[in-house]
Design goal:
alpha/beta; about 30% helix; TIM Barrel; eight-stranded parallel barrel; single chain; 14 helices; three-stranded antiparallel beta sheet; 13 strands
């Protein structure tokens, strides 16, 4: 997800109408009862609302971003009790808003919000990477979300290592320091190199540790694969390409294959470890523009996931490597370069005939923000989105960025959404019913 300073992605439109994107970030954590580590919860999910709509079990989610303390915790180094209470407050608000899932960022920068044997504790907890916070945020989040009837999707970023290029700021035992040949500085950040098989295996191991340890409902990725292009800079993977790129027509094809391998292998390993845990990805909302590829959408976005991030999101749906997809359709209805009313039917066509669930990522963070198009100054814009989605049976729900705005309720937009959900005949399908539908 992205904005410039580590919040959802913001987009600006140049005079030509081309969309330019800034970087997305986010993470989230949860607390364990009493501030102690929490294992899998065996208690049945309670009924927290009267009834549910048996005809439309829809996803109603939100992202909790932890990178740079975007949503949680509010600052690094807070007392455990305060961190835990802040987390519980976010979960309680999700229930009050009639949501049924949270995407909780637990691996924001090659670190962890649980006691991982692979990577250090996140600095966003204590202020010092590698320092034990004294509790298990992910274990707590899983337990407390399930107790409230909420799904908990463990949100990870596969390749981002650091938000600057100073390796010395990483914990002394960080894998990137132990394997400096694994990392690539680019755009003022550090990334693991997706072209190295040992890197792909390692990041899978690190992320899947959360699936192995906790009954998470899904492993969730956002839109970062190869990094977003930075003008005048080159992602230096020459050595890896020389070693592993033989047989590919060009470097772009090789890079896409690297990303395909990560997705396909992760999907298979999730099913081996915890078969009922799902795998979902939330990509940038445009796969390719129709001017580039006749299979693409009638958009003129400046970023195309297939070409710029080397992520063939359309293929992943059609091959059914993933269980759900949440394209970040962060534009208003009528936006010329990337019209919400164009992209929703395009994505509906992509998932049609597959077993992949389609949820739409919603830019709640844009509502009421100065400088955004006029549509975002109207609190009913997102209601229009829900109305449009209702016309497409392939759309099975919506996810809102971010938890901060779910709480803040800009212009009362979230209250309107909450009321709309109430009108649909119940707060949500309970977690047990929701899982049974997969």
């Amino acid at each position: 997800m992205g904005r410039d300073r580590l919040s959802r992605r913001t987009f600006t439109v140049a005079a030509t109408g081309v969309v330019a994107s800034a970087a997305l970030t986010g993470t989230a954590a949860a607390s364990s009862p009493g501030g102690t580590a929490s294992g899998p919860s065996t208690a049945p999910a309670p009924s927290v609302a009267p009834g549910c709509d048996p005809h439309r079990r829809e996803m109603r989610g939100t992202w909790i971003a932890t990178v740079a303390n975007t949503n949680w915790p509010s600052a690094p180094g807070l007392p455990v009790d305060q961190q835990r209470q802040e987390l519980l407050d976010l979960l309680d608000t999700a229930v009050e808003r009639r949501l049924n899932a949270v995407m909780f960022q637990v691996r924001p920068t090659a670190d962890a919000l649980w006691p991982s044997p692979y990577e250090p504790w996140s600095a966003y907890l204590t202020g010092t990477q590698g320092q034990d916070p004294g509790w298990d945020p992910l274990g707590t989040a899983v337990h407390e979300a399930h107790k409230r009837g909420l799904e908990l999707h463990a949100w990870c970023n596969p390749y981002r290592v650091s938000l600057d290029t100073d390796v010395s700021k990483l914990a002394p035992t960080h894998p990137a320091r132990l394997h400096p040949d694994w990392i690539v500085p680019y755009g003022g950040k550090l990334y693991y190199n997706p072209g190295l098989p040992e890197v792909r295996r390692f990041v899978q191991d690190a992320m899947l540790d959360a699936v192995r340890r906790y009954p998470v409902d899904a492993l969730h990725w956002d839109d970062y694969f190869y990094p977003y292009p930075v003008a005048g800079q080159v992602f230096d993977d020459d050595d890896a390409y020389a070693r592993y790129g033989a047989g590919f027509p060009d470097r772009d094809s090789w890079r896409r294959d690297n990303t395909d391998r990560l997705v396909r292998e992760t999907a298979a390993r999730i099913k081996e470890i915890r078969p009922r845990t799902r795998f979902g990805i939330s990509p940038f909302g445009v796969w390719r523009n129709a001017a580039t590829d006749p299979l693409g959408s009638a958009t003129t976005a400046g970023v195309q996931t297939y070409d710029d991030l080397h992520a063939d999101t359309r293929k992943w749906v059609q091959r059914e490597w993933i269980d759900y997809i949440v394209p970040q359709v962060y534009w208003n209805i009528g936006f010329a370069a990337a019209d919400y009313a164009v992209l929703v039917p395009w994505w509906s066509d992509v998932v049609s005939g597959t077993r992949v669930r389609l949820y739409i990522g919603e830019a709640l963070y844009k509502v009421g923000v100065s400088g955004q198009p006029a549509a975002w100054q109207d609190p009913r814009e997102l209601l229009r989105h829900l109305d449009l989605c209702a016309q497409y049976p392939e759309v099975r729900g919506n996810v809102y960025y971010s938890a901060q705005q779910v709480v803040a309720d800009p212009l009362g937009a979230m209250t309107l959404i909450q009321d709309r959900y109430a009108q649909r005949g119940g707060q949500w399908a309970r977690r047990s019913e929701w899982r049974a539908s997969f």
